[in-house]
Design goal:
By secondary structure, this protein is of the alpha/beta class. The chain has helices spanning about 55-75, 105-110, 135-145, 175-180, 215-225, 265-275, 320-330; strands at about 15-20, 25-30, 50, 75-80, 90, 95, 110-115, 115-120, 150, 200, 205-210, 230-235, 250-255, 255-260, 280, 305-310, 310-315, 330-335, 350-355. The chain is built from seven helices and 19 strands. Strand 13 (about 250-255) and strand 14 (about 255-260) form a beta hairpin.
Length: about 375
């Protein structure tokens, strides 16, 4: 096997090396200040915590293995994390948690920018040690690629100062929408907090969703850490649970993005795309009316696809309307059953993290207009 080269600048150039998650030992974590944001009011998960049923773990792993096989059959190198026993209590000097989470969604933890893989400072206490599952791979890449930069964003303390106390007490959907429109979230600006899945990589520009898992202080840190990039704050009015950008705003190739029609990019923020001749298309409606049992995410995982190159995309096999739209947009669609994996951390994009995509750092947005920039 060839030595590793780490390099990825966007979400759509030809994928050659990727990490695919595993479902082993995944837990439903106990309630904490941050997780309350992610569990919908009517979810069958409310009040539950502990190891997920073994039968569901096995089904999820079958589909994750199928994803890995599909990619390998197309000549893409696939690496897998090393799960630890997530069903154990963890503590730091500042907090304790009854269990951890899992390692199905590497996209949440690992942000690849060029030759760097950055481990995110996530806001969920139960995910504080999740990076350990990827530690062996990072060690391997460090040994094999002399240009690889293995980085860790500042480790947060996650004290109560990082959260708004009582944020979710008896809150209605209407109140959630009001607060998100006001950019009022459960995480405070006390310390930098972000999930890597809140960052959309488009060459020289990084678009970061300001929401329940990523604050503006994190975007300021990212701008200082990547001084040659332009970091933008974006938000999507109409989303009561603004967590992770990849079921809301999905680039398919240079100049084309699908956007969740229920969570459209704020009007002022669209200008940077239109000024640079990018087309933003409403994503097709989901084919499924409900998410699978014990699933955090919404039915809009339908648009959480994995783009392999400018003309090829993997879409969940039951999402027929999304596949039809992709076909009309000129994409070669590869269907793959994946709904059994959804409850373990999300869709096809969530379940992967880029290591290498062909291509260089392009400037897709030479005309910088609108009010998205974190710093001029």
């Amino acid at each position: 096997m060839k030595n590793t080269t780490v390099s990825s600048w966007n979400e759509f150039d030809p994928l050659k090396h990727v990490i695919v998650g595993r479902a082993d030992h995944t837990c439903i974590p106990p309630s904490e200040l941050a997780t309350e944001a992610k569990v919908p009011e009517d979810s069958d998960m409310r009040g539950m915590w502990g190891p997920r049923p073994l039968e569901t773990v096995e089904k999820a792993n079958i589909q994750l293995d199928s994803l890995a096989s599909l990619l390998e059959n197309r000549g893409i190198r696939v690496d897998r994390p090393t799960p630890i026993q997530w069903n154990q209590a963890v503590s730091t000097p500042d907090f304790s948690a009854g269990s951890m989470f899992g390692c199905m969604p590497p996209r949440d933890v690992l942000l690849t920018i060029g030759s760097e893989i950055l481990m995110a400072p996530m806001s969920f206490r139960c995910r504080y040690f999740e990076y350990l599952a990827y530690h062996p791979l990072m060690q391997q890449y460090f040994d094999e690629d002399p240009n690889f930069r293995w980085e860790q964003a500042p480790r947060p303390r996650l004290t109560d100062e990082s959260y708004q106390s009582g944020y979710f007490d008896e809150i209605t959907i209407e109140e959630r929408l009001k607060r998100t429109a006001e950019l009022n979230f459960v995480t405070t600006e006390h310390e930098p907090l972000f999930d890597a899945a809140d960052v959309c990589r488009l060459g020289k520009d990084l678009f970061c969703q300001h929401g329940l898992t990523t604050n503006r202080r994190a975007m300021e840190w990212l701008q200082r850490h990547f001084p040659d990039h332009r970091v933008h704050a974006v938000n999507f009015p109409g989303d009561p649970y603004p967590i992770h950008i990849d079921a809301t705003f999905v680039p398919l190739r240079p100049g084309l993005i699908i956007n969740n029609p229920n969570r459209k990019l704020a009007d002022e923020q669209i200008k940077i795309f239109t000024a640079n001749d990018w087309q933003i298309v409403d994503a097709a409606l989901p084919s499924n009316d409900t998410p699978p049992p014990l699933c955090y995410s919404s039915v809009w995982l339908s648009m959480n696809c994995l783009v392999l190159d400018h003309n090829t995309v993997i879409v969940e096999a039951s999402e027929t309307t999304q596949m039809e739209q992709m076909d009309k947009l000129g994409m070669n669609v590869l269907p793959l059953a994946f709904r059994d994996a959804y409850p373990f951390g999300g869709g096809l994009h969530c379940a992967t993290a880029d290591v290498f995509r062909e291509g260089v750092c392009e400037d897709y947005f030479p005309n910088q207009v609108g009010s998205t920039m974190i710093r001029s």
